[in-house]
Every structure is written in structure tokens, then in C-alpha cells.
Design brief:
The structure holds two protein chains of two kinds. The termini of chain A are close together. Chain A is built from no helices and three strands. Chain A is globular, with a radius of gyration of 9 Å. By secondary structure, chain A is mostly beta strands. Chain B is of the alpha/beta class. Chain B is built from twelve helices and 24 strands. Chain B has a seven-stranded mixed sheet. In chain B, strands 17, 18, 19, 22, 23 and 24 form a six-stranded parallel sheet that branches. In chain B, strands 12-13-14-15-16 form a five-stranded mixed sheet, with no helix packed on it. In chain B, a hairpin with a 4-residue loop joins strand 12 and strand 13. Chain B is elongated, with a radius of gyration of 24 Å. Classes of the chains: A mainly beta, B alpha/beta.
């Protein structure tokens, strides 16, 4: 599964890790991350992310 | 200067002036800076932001002139970067505040810096209010402006925005207010601050200004954590930020080069001739003479950047690599670029520069290389490149 990078702060969303602190389980593809999820580092919207 | 200054009724500047700092993690501060800290005196006493560690005694001295520091009830940490928080660990021992207010990311950053689980953190979110007595503080989270923890504090009754690093300038002065200094110089320092600190977050700056306009927030004064306080016409700096955030450019080009034996310099000056002929304003910046942060300031309103480097050991000169590395991180948009340079036997530098410009999504031109010293023909090619770039600038 593809990793996605936050264009604001550079945080990388890794599907293998997910974002468990914010309710996204490990193994969740970026496409399946909820639309209202935000970057855990800088708070940018999901559409601020691009494939790595 | 250690004199507390009234900025509003019951609110005092109690910060520190750093007359001597000349290098701020790679940003040149030829005229020093200030670390502003504000003390609000109400039923509850609140200190907004602290100062860099070596200036702790200046801050405490100023607070002492107003009130016993142990009477401070609340410490508000708008931003955790050590120039504003470095003195906090020692300050905490003296003031022992009832609460330390910060954003969620602020708490994490304070823990990651100072490792004190025992401090009385109180995490606040955008829009949350804190009553001091007659005065009300409203918090406004400004994530990535310019750190994840960044927030601002708005004092409603005074229409005062304590804006953290936003709207700041690195300029040490004995004056505290914008109407006491030369406005053109002040705006130049503010532009340098924007270009070197906030440029990569321009989209967020634009959105913040638009959001604040929608909120119809009355702003009578803007007090940043560095430099002068915007007392007269405070919205001028908000408007300037809005303009800078859109990275609007004028018909201006920078010729930036590093040269070994003047050949690359000659080429750059010939390119400048072509640009000037087309009516473009040109600044020639020799990397041996100019600091990277001043080049970035000039880049803010420039449409084109023409970069030259001699080839050294199959690469570009290190000062050019330094500039490109710094520039890339600042994410400039909508620029035109070109590369040039002299070489002895291999000539990689212009190609490497062009590659770097393409990575930054500059619209680029074919580079010009010249073996050893340029002859008339090479210089004519350079003038022609200047003309070509000039025409592209003029076409917008």
C-alpha cells in the first residue's frame, strides 16, 4: 500500500502503521482513512496529502 | 533596556532586547531582535510567552518592577520554540503558576523539550476563552504558523492580538511601537521575516487572514513576540501578509551567482543587460557578498531567478548548493528560473542548478555554459537569454 505525504509539514502516512492515536488502525489504506481525519502533526486536511 | 512598557491599560511589555544576535539559525539578524513577553494584570495575572534562556533575568527584572513574579497565576505559551520558552524551566520555579495554557501540540512540545510531567498544563483549543477578571483571553490555534504548536491569544476587551511569531520582525530597538520607527525599514524587516520563516506556509497564512476576516475580529493592536508592536494601523501588516501569501511578483529578476575567476560573474552581468533592456528591474547578488536570507527576501517579489555557478570538482560551488537547499524548503511558487556558469573541463553546475529549479517547479530555460572565460559570442548568448527571460516576465 502506498504512503502519503503531508504537503504542509512533511509527515508521512504509512498504511502499515496507520494513526492509531486518532482512530485509524494499522493496515488502513490512505483511501480508507476517514475524510475528516487530519494530519496528526500539523492538522492539515486529508486533501493536503500526496502520494510519496 | 529593562523598562516595562504599557501597551494597553493593564497590559505591559516585559520582554527582552537582544542587540547582539547576528545569526538566528541561519537567518541573518544584522540589527538584533527582541523577545516580547506580555503581562496582563487583572483579578488573575497572566504572562504571555517568555524569552530566550540567556535573557531570563531581563524578563524577571521587568516583571519585578510591576509585580512580585510569584503573583503570576497563569503562564500562556503560544509557541514552544526556545527563543520564547528557553527560560520557562527556571521561570516556573520562581512564578509557580496555577496553570500553564498551551495548545495540544504545545503540551507535547513542552514535554519533548523540558521533560516536566509535573507542570500544571491546561490544553486549550481554538475559540476557547479564559476569564482573567475584566479581561477575556480567546485562544486561536495557528498550526504550522510556523510550528505545529503555534497559537495566538486575543484579548477581547482591548481588541489586542498577541500574535506569537506571526507579524514579527527581527529588529532590536528601544522603541516598542511601529509608529515610533521608520515604517519603510519596519516593513522591510517584516518582509524578511515572512520570506524566511512563513513562506512555506503561505496557503495557511492566506486561509488564516480570510478566516479572521470572516470572524469580523476587531483588531486595535497586534503584539508579536519579535520586534515592534503594531499600534498605528495594525491591519497594514495583515494586508501585507495577505499579499505575500499569494506570492505576487513584480517585473523583477535576481541574478545570483558564485564565481571563481569572474567568468560566471561576467556571464551574469550580460544576462542582466538583456533583462534591463526589456524593462525588468534587476538585482545582482554575489553569493560571496550576500547572505542567503537576504536573497530569499529579495526573492519574495521577484518573478525570475537566474542562478550561476562555476563548476568545481564536477559539482556546483558550495554556496550555491546552500542557497538551493534553503530555497527548496521555503517552497517558492510561480517563478521563472535559468542557470549559467563557466567551467574548466566538465561543466556540471548549470545542469545541476536547472535540475534543482525544475524540482521546485520553476519554469526553466536552457542553461548556458562556457569553457573558461566567455568570449563575445558567449556574452551575446547571455544577453539574449536575459532578453528572453525579460519577455517571459513581461508576458506574466
Amino acid at each position: 500500500m502506498e504512503k502519503y505525504v503531508c504537503q504542509v509539514c512533511g509527515y508521512v502516512y504509512d498504511p502499515a502503521v496507520g494513526d492509531p492515536d486518532n482512530g485509524v488502525a494499522a493496515g488502513t489504506a490512505f483511501a480508507d482513512v476517514p475524510a475528516d481525519w487530519v494530519c496528526p502533526v500539523c492538522g492539515a486536511d486529508k486533501d493536503s496529502f500526496s502520494p510519496e | 533596556m529593562r523598562i516595562p512598557t504599557d501597551i494597553k491599560d493593564g497590559i505591559k511589555w516585559v520582554g527582552a532586547i537582544d542587540w547582539a544576535v547576528r545569526d538566528f539559525h541561519g537567518y541573518s539578524t544584522y540589527k538584533g531582535t527582541t523577545y516580547n513577553s506580555f503581562l496582563a494584570l487583572d483579578d488573575k495575572v497572566a504572562l504571555f510567552d517568555a524569552v530566550k534562556k540567556p535573557f531570563k533575568m531581563d524578563l524577571l527584572h521587568n516583571i519585578h518592577k510591576v509585580i512580585d513574579p510569584s503573583k503570576i497565576d497563569y503562564l500562556i505559551v503560544n509557541h514552544v520554540e526556545p527563543d520564547h520558552s528557553g527560560s520557562i524551566p527556571e521561570l516556573m520555579e520562581v512564578i509557580k503558576p496555577e496553570k500553564v495554557f498551551c495548545s495540544g501540540r504545545g503540551k507535547k512540545a513542552l514535554l519533548d523539550h523540558y521533560h516536566r510531567e509535573d507542570w500544571p498544563y491546561e490544553v486549550v483549543e481554538s475559540g476557547q476563552e479564559l476569564k482573567l477578571g475584566k479581561k477575556t483571553v480567546q485562544f486561536l490555534e495557528t498550526r504550522m504558523l510556523h510550528w505545529p504548536d503555534s497559537m495566538m491569544s486575543y484579548i477581547k476587551e482591548d481588541a489586542l492580538l498577541i500574535s506569537s511569531d506571526g507579524f514579527g520582525q527581527h529588529w532590536a530597538t528601544s522603541e516598542r511601537f511601529n509608529d515610533e520607527v521608520d515604517n519603510a525599514e519596519l516593513m522591510a524587516h517584516a518582509a524578511k521575516y515572512y520570506a524566511n520563516i512563513l513562506l512555506p506556509y503561505s496557503n495557511l497564512v492566506k486561509k488564516l487572514v480570510e478566516d479572521v476576516q470572516k470572524m469580523d475580529l476587531k483588531i486595535d493592536m497586534i503584539a508579536p513576540d519579535h520586534g515592534l508592536i503594531w499600534r498605528k494601523d495594525p491591519l497594514q501588516i495583515v494586508q501585507a501578509y495577505y499579499k505575500w501569501s499569494q506570492q505576487e511578483t513584480i517585473d523583477k529578476a535576481l541574478i545570483i551567482y558564485d564565481t571563481m575567476w569572474h567568468s560566471t560573474e561576467m556571464m551574469g552581468k550580460a544576462i542582466a543587460d538583456g533583462l534591463i533592456e526589456k524593462g525588468v528591474s534587476v538585482k545582482i547578488m554575489d553569493l560571496a557578498a550576500e547572505h542567503r536570507s537576504d536573497i530569499i527576501t529579495q526573492m519574495l517579489d521577484s518573478k525570475a531567478l537566474v542562478l550561476g555557478s562555476s563548476t568545481l570538482n564536477n559539482g556546483m560551488l558550495p554556496r550555491m548548493a546552500d542557497l538551493l537547499c534553503y530555497m527548496k524548503g521555503l517552497k517558492p511558487v510561480n517563478k521563472i528560473g535559468a542557470a549559467f556558469g563557466s567551467y574548466g573541463w566538465s561543466g556540471e553546475a548549470p545542469k545541476l542548478i536547472n535540475k534543482s529549479l525544475e524540482e521546485m517547479k520553476f519554469k526553466t530555460f536552457e542553461s548556458i555554459s562556457c569553457q573558461f572565460a566567455p568570449n563575445h559570442e558567449v556574452l551575446k548568448k547571455c544577453v539574449d537569454l536575459g532578453r528572453e527571460i525579460g519577455s517571459a516576465i513581461k508576458q506574466g
